[in-house]
Amino acid sequence: MNLTYFRSAAIAAAIAAATCFLPLTSNSVGGSHDKISPIFGVEIPAGYRDWRMISVAHEAGDLNDLRAVLGNDIAIKAFREGTRPFPDGTVIARLAWKHVPSQENNAAFGREQSFVPGVSTNLQISVKDAKKYIETGGWGYGQFEGGRANRSEALMKTCFPCHTRTKPTDDFVFTRYAQ
Amino acid sequence: MNLTYFRSAAIAAAIAAATCFLPLTSNSVGGSHDKISPIFGVEIPAGYRDWRMISVAHEAGDLNDLRAVLGNDIAIKAFREGTRPFPDGTVIARLAWKHVPSQENNAAFGREQSFVPGVSTNLQISVKDAKKYIETGGWGYGQFEGGRANRSEALMKTCFPCHTRTKPTDDFVFTRYAQ
């Protein structure tokens, strides 16, 4: 490798790094922007499906979903110890699926009572970084559908205003740890 | 320590081991039987609350609960790879809480739609050991309330008959892995 080649490669890498936070090995069909949320630049965290469970929920009405809320190690520790505000590095993953009846379970039980996850609706990721996200209470947000970031800036602008409706002592987080 | 003392201690330990499967350091208020299910001798697995999530569910009707199903490493691997029957050592933990409205969330959203975990109802543990539990499809069961085993043999006798209502290919397990 000669010096000219090295310099060219270094410049190309610097330009790529400056224009996109993603690794150069991105294999997203729709381009690298599919992986990061607008405004906040939040990505799907690697291995989030292996994270421990904070809680579950059921949103009825229009949403009609079943939810699971998982957290990285920093999140779990903070939830268990009641640490507020959440420390930097806290990441919360909210999974949701359509709330659908389980025909199989209902047939087994002889009653229409069992609801299970249907198709995934979306994945929402909340990242705590008090400095980076100072304008939104220290939280960055992303919503992902089928593994791709929802690129609507309008949608992203609804996240924080909604989370401001939590109690002041909750550091903008709705979820409680399920014992 | 002289030999007589050693022999006495060994005999005492042997008697204890023969009459009770639990460690001698049990600190259960109600005695060691509070920790194991009747018939199957299943205990609450250490660290189960740190296990990864298999799925969630909502049982309406009389049960009126929200559920989370967690699994140990063997269970998670089998669910993800579709291994059936489940290998020995599979342990599945089904947590459940009352399905209660979140007044706080509903006030924030301006709609009556949000349901979250209330008080814990019970914890059910399923353990796969094809040889030990040969008479119940290879599964041993336990139900725990407030950390104590439900000691009703009649209840324990309802577990396997209900699980036989699953499809033959499901190895007596209702839950599906939530993607």
TrEMBL record, chains A, B:
Transmembrane segments: none annotated. Residues 1-28 form the signal peptide. Residues 45-175 form the Cytochrome P460 domain. Keywords: Signal. InterPro entries: Cytochrome_P460, Cytochrome_P460_sp. Pfam families: Cytochrome_P460. CDD domains: cyt_P460_Mc-like. It comes from Methylobacterium oxalidis. This is Cytochrome c oxidase subunit III.
